Amino acid sequence: MKDQIKTLARQYAADIVANRRHLHANPELSFNEYNTARFVAEQLKAIGLTPQEGVANTGLVALIEGRKTGSSENRVVGLRADMDALPIHEANDVPYKSTVEGVMHACGHDVHTSSLLGTARILQELRDQFEGTVKLVFQPAEEKAPGGASLMIKDGVLENPSPASMLGQHVAPNVPVGKIGFREGMYMASTDELYLTVIGKGGHGAMPDQLIDPVLIASHIIVALQQIISRNRKPANPSVLSFGRFVADGVTNVIPNEVKIEGTFRCMDEEWREDGLRRMKKMAEGMAEAMGAVCEFTVVRGYPFLKNHPELTRRMRSAATEYMGPENIVNLDLWMAGEDFAFYSQVVDSCFYRLGTRNEARGIISGVHTPTFDIDESALEIGAGLMSWLAVEELRVKS
Ligand SMILES: [Zn+2]
Ligand SMILES: [Zn+2]
Questions:
Q1: Active-site annotation, residues
Q2: Which end of the chain is more exposed for a tag (fewer CB within 10 A), N or C?
Q3: Nearest to 75 by CA among 346, 308, 312, 394
């Protein structure tokens, strides 16, 4: 089976690359993946599948039915690809350069989508050789809150039939092409945005006794909030609290009425996430009040943290080792970035792994979300083939 998959992946590689280039040249922003969805639907229909369209508006779901098991136990594995691009103007001079001003597939979601289309073709071809069902999930809006994954789940993507496990892959510009990265347990962070307004009473800087200085109070609050990270957090819980915006719009001798602060809180534990947010709000509001000001503390909730189910991930790591060779499997570090695949990982056994796309010799080294991001396209044959193999292996597991 493994060799058959490898042969088919090689056979379809040129088509997968062509699909990737088409998607790359025609990127669409989050929640606007209309042409992308149409393209995916056409491709799926062309191989005999019947996609359910319009899930979370621009998402699609399709089933590949393997052999019936005979028993009532029909194992289902979900494979997810995200489809949206970013508001970045592409700086690469390549034949498949984005044709849309200011929009670019700078996070590799064109790669994920074309790779999953390749996987669909391989598994559809081999469907009489495995038992169970493969659920293909083409998802919109990974890059934008509230995240296409959360909307797909609301629209029932994890029901009828329910996947026993979900697999997702993401390009990795820091991992050489030909290598695959895994990490069991916590992998990526929850992402909440914090918006604080400290309201005091502004006036002449020479008469601070007449004023309630929001600049000084906001400064205290910023320092105090870091204390929650260093003193209330369990040391084993990775966390980041960063403020990137602090606006006190006075001048040398004029203290403004208010100060606005914006930051991000990230962690890898949902309980601590709630506790941390509660403590921050209390601290900020309480300190402002103690100093005679008011602090409005608003949280815009982002994605939960992404946990790779340890057993599933170990199974996928060993299946990938078989497919790729042990020298091509790498361990991933924790990454404090967010990813909406985390929504699946909170409710179903999930494994999110990384597909190496870096090629230093060819200068393909730019990070995701940069205008020069690109991949070594030989990763596509690997991505499509490996995911097919992982799905087949996962369907063999007895639940
Ligand atoms: Zn991204
Ligand atoms: Zn991404």
A1: 84, 142
A2: C
A3: 394
- DSSP secondary structure string, 323-388? HH-GGGEEEPPPB-S--TTHHHHHHSEEEEEEEEEEBGGGTB-PPTTSTT----THHHHHHHHHHH
**What does the pLDDT look like over 245-300, one tens digit per residue?**
999 999 999 999 999 999 999 999 999 999 999 999 999 999 999 999 999 999 99
DSSP tag of 276: H
Dist. CA 368 → ligand 2 center (Å): 8
Residue pair 182/326 in contact by the 8 Å Cβ criterion: no
Is 193 marked within a binding site?
A: no
Q: Which ligand does the CA of 341 lie closest to?
A: 2
Distance from Cα 109 to the centre of ligand 1, integer Å? 8
Domains annotated on the chain, with CATH: 1-188+305-396 (3.40.630.10), 190-300 (3.30.70.360)
Consult the annotation and say whether 369 binds a ligand: yes
Task: Check whether 351 is labelled as a binding-site residue.
Answer: no
- What is the C-alpha separation between 339 and 343, in angstroms, rounded? 9
